[in-house]
UniProtKB/TrEMBL annotation:
Family annotation (Pfam families): M20_dimer (PF07687), Peptidase_M20 (PF01546)
Classification via NCBIfam families: hydantase, PRK09290.1-5
Domain Peptidase M20 dimerisation: 210-310
Protein's UniProt keywords contain Membrane: no
Cofactor(s) demanded: Zn(2+)
InterPro entries, per database record: Amidase_Cbmase (IPR010158), Bact_exopeptidase_dim_dom (IPR036264), Peptidase_M20 (IPR002933), Peptidase_M20_dimer (IPR011650)
Protein name listed in UniProt: N-carbamoyl-L-amino-acid hydrolase
Cofactor binding summary note: Binds 2 Zn(2+) ions per subunit.
Record-listed Zn(2+) 1 binding positions: 82, 93, 189
Length: 408
């Protein structure tokens, strides 16, 4: 069995992980930012060193395509993920899968393997959705779920426009999103959860991915003096926001369903110690593997907001930022992942992805599945994110084996 070049892969993960650190050493490569450009430039440099074709589409998705005159007309096998990060990120989320995809191509190329179809690796734009929403934006565009124009018009949390930012960093490509129609899609990713580590398993064969609902809630009350305004005369946007957050999190904590709810951002206006907040703006991330239950949770929240507005004498508006239904991956590929793990003597289990991934978008246009490796302590979206070198290499070798099968 051929093996990937472990030191090359591990070295690149660390080298890319060092790009985009701020003054406090935090890793921040938000989509289409200057640090994202640095990471992109490093990755494109490796693609060129590998001697494969580089293509960039209009929304900045980067593709490295290994093709020959004999197989160029065939639908490619696509291996992908992302290299943009959250704020104060770990070095493995997304980057591991992109660099492992390149590693698989270089290993197959060097081994004299002759694929019957091109093999490509993709780094999709704005998977994280921290600066521009929705998340998985580049792969959603590639899958035809949103137009390039809509993506390029996206306004960031910093007021920037994605079209201008991509042009500014030199990644406003000329290919149309979706120009590459995959025969199949594979994504290798850290689990970002506690399951594999908890069960002492090195490989996860991801068979489905939960539904995601992102909303921005704006509550408008009346600014007033913190000292002179009786409690009965307040329209306090801050208190109303606190009640929504408590309602939502108490409800999901008390439920024995797998529903998860997160309020990750909040801001008050005018944000002064002695002024009753006139406005509160916060985001809600709701997820569930079951679409009906997710819809029911959204309905419960909407009903609560309606009665709260009257009770707190505030007005509440909601903007849907992202909404993706649960996805079932291709069983035949899941079975190949399981068989490849067993052939290498690695324990494997089928599992659900709690996180969103580009694979959920690619599953709309091609058979797709994911391979997980353990996350230490289940930690992710945190600089403490960690996966052992041996686990990273094992996952990349499973990707190599399944890719070689699908490329024939
Ligand atoms: O939010 C997610 O699950 C992914 O990290 N974008
Ligand atoms: Mn990711
Ligand atoms: Mn992530």
């Amino acid at each position: 069995m051929i093996e990937i070049d472990a030191q090359r892969l591990l070295g690149r993960i660390r080298e890319l992980g060092a790009v985009g650190r701020d003054g406090e050493g935090r890793l921040i490569r938000l989509a289409a930012s200057d640090t994202d450009r640095q990471g992109r430039d490093l990755f494109v440099g490796w693609l060129r060193q590998a001697g494969i074709d580089v293509a960039i589409d209009r929304v900045g998705n980067i593709f490295g395509i290994w093709q020959s005159p004999e197989n160029a007309g065939q639908a490619p096998l696509l291996i992908g993920s992302h290299i943009d990060t959250v704020i104060d990120a770990g070095i493995y989320d997304g980057c591991y899968g992109v660099l492992a995809g390149l590693e698989v191509i270089e290993t197959l190329k060097a081994s004299g393997f002759l694929p019957s179809r091109p093999v490509a690796v993709a780094a999709f734009t704005n998977e994280e959705g921290v600066r521009y929403t929705p998340d998985m934006m580049g792969s959603l565009a590639h899958a035809g779920g949103v137009s390039a124009e809509t993506v390029l018009a996206a306004v960031g949390t910093d007021g920037s426009v994605l079209r201008q930012e991509l042009a500014r960093i030199g990644y406003a490509g000329d290919r149309e999103p979706g120009f590459l129609r995959p025969h199949a899609y594979l994504e290798l990713h850290i689990e970002q959860g506690p399951v594999l580590e908890g069960e002492g398993l090195p490989i996860g064969a991801v068979e489905n991915l939960q539904g995601i609902s992102w909303q921005r809630v704006t509550i408008d009350g009346v600014a007033n003096h913190a000292g002179t305004t009786p409690m009965s005369m307040r329209s306090d946007a801050g208190h109303a926001a606190a009640r929504v957050i408590t309602f939502l999190l108490d409800r999901t904590k008390a439920s024995n369903a797998p529903t998860v709810a997160t309020v990750g951002t909040i801001r008050f206006e005018p944000n002064a110690i002695n002024v009753i907040p006139s406005r509160a703006v916060f985001t809600i991330d709701l997820r569930d593997p079951d679409e009906q239950r997710l819809q029911a949770e959204e309905a419960e929240l909407a009903a609560y907001l309606e009665q709260l507005a009257a009770a707190e004498k505030v007005t509440i508006s909601v903007e849907q930022l992202a909404r993706f239904e649960p996805v079932i991956f291709d069983l035949r590929i899941v079975e190949r992942i399981e068989a490849a793990a067993r052939a290498r003597g690695l324990g494997v289990k089928r599992m659900t992805s709690g996180a969103g991934h580009d694979a959920q978008m690619m599953a709309r246009i091609a058979p797709a599945a994911m391979i997980f490796v353990p996350s230490a302590g289940g930690i992710s979206h945190n600089p403490r994110e960690h996966t052992e070198d041996g686990e990273l290499v094992a996952g990349a070798n499973i990707l190599l084996d399944v890719a070689a099968q699908l490329a024939k």
